[in-house]
Every structure is written in C-alpha cells, then in structure tokens.
Amino acid sequence: MSHEPGAVLKPLVKLGRDPADCWTWLANVDVGGVASKQFGGKRMPARRWMWAQLFGPIPDGLVVTTACGSKTCVNPHHLRACTQADACRASVNTSLLPADVIDIKRAKKDAGPNTARVLADKHGCSPQTIRDIWKRRSWSRAKPNYGPRKNPTGSPAPVAAANPPP
Ligand SMILES: [Zn+2]
Q: What's the CATH code of the domain at 36?
C-alpha cells in the first residue's frame, strides 16, 4: 500500500464533495447498521476507531457519537466523544441535519404507532427527539450544526441550508 496522504482511508470511506459532508464508511456495518471495524482482534464501532486514530485513546467511560446522526459516518468533524448521558441529551438538538428534520416532519402526517421509533432508528436519535420535532419543541428552525462549538464567533458555518424551514 502506498503512503500517499489519504491512501489508507480511501478504501474505507467515501468522502463527500464538500469537506462538511459525511464520510460514509464502506467497510463492515454491524447488525444495528453502525459502521464497524475489526481492530486488534476485536470489533469496534468505526467512529471509535477513527476518533482514536486521530485524537488518541478514548477516555474511559466516553462514547463516540456523530453530530450528524449517521450511523455510518466517520467524518472526524462530525464525531464527538462524550458520556452516554450527554449523547442521549445531545440527540435532542445536535444529531440531525436539516434534511433529516424535513424528512421527519414529512413523515408526521401518516405517522402510525411505531413511526417515531422507526424514524429514530433511521436517523440515529431517540423516539422522543422525533416526537419533539413533531411538536416543534426542538428544531422548529432546522439548521446545520457541525462539530464542537468551541468558537461561536469564528468561521462561518458550512453551506448546507439548501432547504430553509417553512
Ligand atoms: Zn456525518
């Protein structure tokens, strides 16, 4: 294998056109639809592997989640290491992209008893998040949210608001 920059990742991920796009994992996906990687004889979520490759060992007790909500995304800018409790809380506001929210809102009109759960599985968030969106408790204005918000006044957000909220 060559050691050109990017050569190692190339067979593993499909990069988007825009740097802010998801990096879709092309290798194995586990039964839950989460991208996974064989590493050191063990299977681990690919996003954990990616995080550890880039940032070092994951501190004990932390989980790695994706801010975009995709189970197969390993874009480091979309990855967050946080506690399980934070991950659950964060899913209320941070794990969905505008297109997801539009999809969820659209599904509301013919929602059945299981729709919230099905959508939650599809988008990697909790059923409560889906119901919150329907009731407009969260995401009444869908807007993108990338990466950790360390610098609120800093660089402009990546362009993604192709579908402004109604
Ligand atoms: Zn992503």
A: 3.90.75
